[in-house]
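README: folding subset

This subset contains proteins for which both the sequence and a predicted structure token string are available. Records are stored as plain text. Below is the entry for histidine kinase (392 residues), shown exactly as it appears on disk.
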Amino acid sequence: MAAIGAATLFAIVQIVLYTTSGDNRGPGSLAELALNLLLNASLPLVVRLPRTVGGLAVVVTTVLALGASLAPDAVAARIDPITTPVATPAVVSFLVTLLPWHQAFAFAAVLALPAIPIWSPSWGNLYEALSSTALPALGALYLRARYELVRSLRKRAELADSERRLLAERAETAERQRLAADLHDIVTHHVTEIVLHADALRVTTRDDDARAAAEQIRRAGTRTLTELRDLMHVVATGARPAPAGRPQNDTGGDLAALAAADHAALHVAGDPDTVPAVVARAVYRVVQESLTNARKHAPGAPVTVAISYPGDRADVEVRNAPPRRSVDPTLTSAGSGMGLIGLDRRVTLLGGTFSAGDDGEGGFTVTASLPASATRGETLAGANDRVIRIPA
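--- output ---
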């Protein structure tokens, strides 16, 4: 754009000067104007063909200098005739900007020699040549050096900022891993105690109800320890979940019983055994948390749970209609508000996608899709990019 603007400006100025010169025109004025307009027309090509435009400028300058020296009448009529094209400063500036400095200055020197000219030098021609070549070259060189310096400083600042962010993220990740390890140790220790005491109670008690309750506590504790072990393994190593072929009862819980307890309609399509145990347990947790939210925020509303296993993943959708009874504020404020956020992190950690929000009809929908096998590294990049809307 700058080259086009300069070419247009030079052409207008030269045409105006030629038309207003009147009787002061020399015999070669028209040829001089044509050569200058030719050089002006080549300026828009200087970015793509800088050497070609530079060579054309040399040719035009040489022709003007030879024409001035071979026209004695014109020389007599004009003291120190101008032999440098008007566009020469712009050409030199672009060459210094686009070419290596030694090539650009070689073009400037070649352009200056015919403009003096060396066979009949004069102070006027010398001033004209230097002001048309040397000064624009030095100015463009200064601007180029300044631009490169500012760009290098900006890149250095961006690199330092990226390094600071990377170090902060590494420190945050290390601290989270340490806290997760501490939490795992604490929970594992206390849950193990609960499992041992429940197992002891199951063996020693003679009350059938107490024995059944102790067995349920023992199974829940054992399942919790298994989930903790699997999740910590994924977090620590980024390993893929175990392949399918798990025991049929290793699902994290009974989905049918879970749905029946909340009077939800359950629809299951496909074979649950096509996904590993850690994915099956994540499906159970998504359904469990979604039903809990529906019970708290949409009392009396019908709930539909749809789970499908296409073979390479597990898809879950839990949808509840608008509430039919007033919401109990004591019940809605009892939670921590981290349930859906925790589900999002858990599903994302396993390589899946998660979304939760209003369905546009007053209800609420939770969807999750978990691959049967995915690496942790492929999915963590977008873990914090989604917004989870907690129902009011």
